[in-house]
Amino acid sequence: MPIRRYLAQHPQVADVAIALWFVAPSMTNALLVVAGDTTGTAWRGWAFVVVTLAAGALLLRRRQAPLLVAAGITLLGVASMALLRDSSSLELAAAFTVYAVAATRPGWLAWSALGAQAIAMLGAATLFLSDIPVPSARPVEFDSSTSFGPFSSVLILGQLIAIAVGTGVRGRRQHVADLVARANALARDREHRSQLAVAAERERIAHEMHDVVAHSLTVMVALAEGARAASAADPARSHDALVALTATGRSALGDMRRVLGVLRDSDEPESAPAPARAIVLDDLADQFRAAGLPVRVIARGDVPPPSMPARAAADRIVQEALTNTLRYAPEAEAVIVELRRRDEREAGGQDWLDVVIADHGSPRARTPGRGLGTGRGIIGMRERAAMHGGTLTAGPDGDGWRVHATLRLDDHTEDTAG
User: Of 35, 61, 78, 326, which has the fewest CB atoms closer than 10 Å, so is most exposed?
Assistant: First the structure.
């Protein structure tokens, strides 16, 4: 309803309306009490004060502590019945305060306030109103609420209705608050997942950048040094090195453009990631051979094709390992790259791909710290192996260095990869 929505949006207006609705009949009752006073007692003039204080308390019941307001109304009711022998319609004010407590406080506290208020006011009514009869012929002299029976009925019924309505309002507010909190939690969760997706995409791009920069620049530096060294003694070899240098640079430039292309807006993780360029292992070995590294590739068993994700990860591990070999052991006498498939499914095991990159005979093999560098390369290789349920070990091996990666092959992925 429009009126209900307006009052819900403007609670101060609702408080003023309730106070006026209470004051009008209460003031009328007070005037009737004063007009019908035949005892000459001065206490009758306090009826206006009681009604005014009760109206002020009703105005403050929402902005101040509802429990204090309920206690104040209870004290005013007891005082009115004790001094004026009239309830001053405070049983209605009591119902409004019980509603305020029930709408803003837990149920047990609302029932406790109701019980304390009812006991105090009914006790006062028993002491001070029980001897006042219900009038029938002279309504001007007495109000029906000044007798114990009507007063107790109005008090109890009003409080029960008030606590029922207040509890329902509080339950509805809590339900709306829960819905808002749940919506906010979902929004925070979506934002958190979006941030995680952005972080994961940035990490993937960082791995791609590392592969491009570390591999390509290392090979290009080795080719440039070889071309410079052979420029005078062997011009043909120097020319071949420069051709290989140019091809490697163009390939690296293409990879850089592909990787940087996804950085148009790093806050959009939903955008499709740029696919990694497939590595042809023989071409990779030729590049390192041109850079002066004696690489030999051995494939044993039914090695999966490069389009298979696990095989693509294995080729990236080979690229990283050969780059480290060229950087830290460029004078190695032999570099062996071995790929071997272990199909243990018939024995209840898994389908594995073993990748071994080992160099031998380098004069620098026994140099402390050889192959360690910053450690990022080895960490990246371990992460690639872990993504496919495998492991990776790297360390000295005799007079060289050995990297051994084990990756689990997924049958479903292999079938879909063709």
Answer: 35
DSSP run (H or E) holding 199: helix 148-210
3-state secondary structure of 338: strand
> Distance between CA atoms of 387 and 362, rounded to whole angstroms?
32
Check if the beta carbon of residue 388 is closer than 8 Å to that of residue 405.
Answer: no
Q: First CA to last CA across the chain, in angstroms?
A: 65
Which has the minimum average pLDDT: 7-11, 131-135, 319-323? 131-135
pTM reported for the whole predicted model: 0.49
**Reported confidence tier of residue 39, pLDDT bands at 50, 70, 90:** very low
Share the mean pLDDT of the chain. 75
Buried b (16+ CB within 10 A) or exposed e, 343-374: eeeeeeebbbbbbbbbbbebeebeeeebbeee
In order, the DSSP letters of 207-245 are HHHHIIIIIIHHHHHHHHHHHHHHTTT-HHHHHHHHHHH
Is the Cβ–Cβ distance between 102 and 167 less than 8 Å?
A: yes
58: closest CA among 28, 21, 85? 21
Handedness of CA 284, 289, 293, 295 (dihedral sign): positive
Whether the CB-CB separation of 43 and 84 falls below 8 Å is answered with yes
Residue with tokens 């029938």: 136
Helix (H, G, I), strand (E, B) or coil at 402: strand
Are the beta carbons of 335 and 294 closer than 8 angstroms?
A: yes
pLDDT score of 223: 76
Helix then strand then coil, in percent of the chain rounded to 5, is: 65, 10, 25
DSSP secondary structure letter of residue 65 = -
Confidence of residue 402 (pLDDT cuts 50, 70, 90): very high
239-259 pLDDT, tens digit each: 777 777 777 777 777 767 766
Nearest CA-CA partner of 340 in 306, 314, 303, 304: 303
Residue 16 CB neighbours (<10 A): 14
CA distance linking residue 255 with residue 272, whole number of Å: 17
Name every residue whose Cβ is closer than 8 Å to that of residue 13 and which is 6 or more positions away in sequence. 6, 7
- The fraction of the chain above a pLDDT of 90, given in percent, is 9
- Within 13 Å and on the Cβ side, how many CA atoms surround 35? 12
Exposed e or buried b per residue across 233-272, where buried means at least 16 C-beta atoms within 10 angstroms of its C-beta: eeeeebebbbebbeebbebbeebeeebeebeeeeeebeee
Phi/psi at 393 (5° precision): -125, 145
How open is the CA angle 161-157-106, to the nearest 5 degrees?
Answer: 45
